[in-house]
Amino acid sequence: MFETIIEIAYLVGALLIILGLRKMGSPDTARRGNIEAGIGMGIAILASMVAPMDGANNNYGWILGGMIVGGLIGWISAKKVKMTAMPQMVSVFNGLGGATAVVLGMVELAHYYNGTAMDGGQLVVTLLALIIGGVSFTGSMLAYLKLDGKVKDKHVTFNGHSILNIILLLVMVGAAVYLYMQGQPGGMVLAVVVMILSMIYGFSFVAPIGGADMPVVISLLNSFTGLSAAAAGLIYGNLVMIVGGIFVGAAGTILTVLMCNAMNRSLLSVIIGGFGTSAVAGAKAGTDGQIVKEIGLNDMAIQLFYSDSVIFVPGYGLAVAQAQKVLKELDDLLSANGVDVKYAIHPVAGRMPGHMNVLLAEADVPYPKLLDLEEANSAFPNTDIVVIVGANDVVNPAAKDDPSSPIYGMPILDVLDAKNVVVIKRSMSPGYAGIQNPLFFHAKNKMLFGDAKAILTKVASEVKDL
Amino acid sequence: MDTIIQFFSSNLQMVYILLFTIILGFEIISKVPTVLHTPLMSGANAISGIVTIGAVILVRQAAPDDYFTLGLGFLGVILGMINVVGGFAVTDRMLEMFKKKKK
Lengths: 466, 103
Fold this sequence. Notes:
- The complex is a heterodimer.
- Chain A folds into three domains: about 50 residues; about 190 residues, no CATH class; about 180 residues, TPP-binding domain (Rossmann fold, 3-Layer(aba) Sandwich).
- Helix content of chain A is about 60%, strand content about 5%.
- Chain A has 19 helices and six strands.
- The termini of chain A are far apart.
- Chain B is an all-alpha fold.
- Chain B has two domains: about 30 residues; about 70 residues.
- At the A-B interface, α1, α2, α3, α4 and α9 of A face α2, α3, α4 and α5 of B.
């Protein structure tokens, strides 16, 4: 009887998780979906605590202690993190999930090499949990460090890195296969070696990938963590873990592919890397001696005030400067004077797809004002002025006309179709992908140098005075 | 070959579940608007914290004086719970903003 209740609880948990993630696919139901998935997870974890188990010692003190400590750390860090640092936070959380799989794999292997029986299939899934978890752990941590700017691409890469990665992968898989073949006696040392190899590989796997591709990598590593959870689920024969893990593995994989599509890059080219590192190649396109025109704050305010339509193109610079609220104020001022204000959101603006939508939503920008790539590109020809706030690569015309550029082929916002373009930017430095932007030198374009928030505040007060 | 057939026939239900779950995962995500990619990734990340259940089972099975297993299991529960609780909380914070703007 009790056993059946537990089985039903597991089933309900798994259903809530899947239905919750489904609801997260639509803006109206997303929040409720997340809460439902969370409840499903809670039910499943609770069921695992009270499920009947042969020879269980329970040790609830340890479990509850761990839950309180982990729960508090997770809760507090989630509440404290800044909106701009969300991608990094997700990466860290993901890495810890991978680390959990490593811990499980290691303990089970330690038991096995101490004489506990384990059949071939179990040994395989234990090794899988260990390896995939290890790769996900260190990979996610490096992705965090890169996104946070603590590690620069050039610190951790060198020529022939992809060859090293292939060798590492082969050695790691070889060691694991050997471990599987040789059987029980004395494998513990080699098991530790496999664990360390998987962690080195995770690090080395992410190392050559350019900073701009980090979101794709996090999504990929997220699906790895899902797979390691599924492998761990196979160790314990726990269906919720298997279903949840595989589900995340599949969802994460397709999400990764969608993100790659948005950047018009294949997953393979992301993994091989070099996006940020071959930057200099794109800068060749003859930008020397070209003139950059600047625009004054007053001129900018007047132009905005007397135009019929304005489109803002937000990018990571907006997020860093926390300028979304000021931008909304400026929007309100202009809208009150009959200017049609819209926002063009490139799928990969910011550091993650959807990043800009989240920030603008925080500033109460209404949904219908946000244009996606196609809508924006068809709106530009009828737009008086486009203001680019801290975006760079997503408006780089080199993606269309310079085959030597590393971002050649990426769909961009065709801001030059508009009558005027203003770029608000801190300096002339190239964007996150490290590529020079010919837009800055274009006849239609004017620059407004400075911190996005400071500039927008000043422009807003100029507009008020008009 | 025999072992593969053997494995397949004895784990038929599991093979069904795996395949259906993979298709389900693909289907659910492929219809999602770009706006929601970041929260969705974050939500999926929280779900991968399901691995915590493994750590719970590990600790429950351990002998009360097996401090190696207990200690590492304890660590596993902590890490897993950070993933779960932090993951859902961060996702909720992101989605909170989507709700506000609808007013």
